[in-house]
Amino acid sequence: MARTLKTYYYVILSFLLLILCAGNYAYGYEFYEVKWVDDGDTIVLKDGRKIRYAGINAPEVDHKEIKAEPYAYKSKELNKEMVYLKKVRLEFDAEKNDRYGRALAYVFLPDGTFVNNEIINKGFAYCLPSPPNLKYEQLLLKSQQNAMSFKKGIWQNWEESNSEYIANKRSKRFHYKKCGFANKISKINVKYFSKKWDAFWEGYAPCRKCFIE
């Protein structure tokens, strides 16, 4: 009898351990809980790691003396609805960290939802191709083109200015003609645009330096 009870004990214990592990693993993947959402493209995990979504850039929320960019808080809210206090899976590319020490990751929910792509598809971020991290570049670009076509989020009240833009085929960034970086692009990598819309449509992202200034 005692031996039978002991067997049942180990069976039940094993079952409980399986349930516990299932909270962190699904289909062979490890999942981590999100404890904080900074903005539309950055989260903090329960283990303390700060995760920057790879391949996208969401509008900046206000910080210090810098005002929030349009749609920044809508982007943050969408991100929060999807991941806050939930478990996510991280997928990495060639470069695993940015210059600020944040982990660069493609983030997935247990049901397979690709969070980076969902934010792009809803129009609350734009593609930020960053070679060599180009694993999902084409998927993200297709979602951005869809959002642009239906004028979602940041694309709905679009305004163009009369200017010429110079893009770098290698870095996938575009600049104002007067930007110092534009003058350093080698001839073989130069591409010209007369509209920002066209540059975005082809998957180029704006130079943060010249467009902020």
UniProtKB/TrEMBL annotation:
The chain crosses the membrane at residues 7-27. InterPro entries: Ada-like_dom_sf, SNase_OB-fold_sf, Staphylococal_nuclease_OB-fold, Thermonucl_AS. It comes from the Bacteria. Residues 28-157 form the TNase-like domain. PROSITE patterns: TNASE_2, TNASE_3. The keyword RNA-binding does not apply. One of its GO terms (molecular function) is nucleic acid binding. Keywords: Endonuclease, Hydrolase, Membrane, Nuclease, Transmembrane, Transmembrane helix. PANTHER family: EBNA2 BINDING PROTEIN P100 (PTHR12302), SERINE_THREONINE-PROTEIN KINASE 31 (PTHR12302:SF3). This is TNase-like domain-containing protein. It comes from uncultured Desulfobacterium sp. The lineage of its organism: Bacteria, Pseudomonadati, Thermodesulfobacteriota, Desulfobacteria, Desulfobacterales.
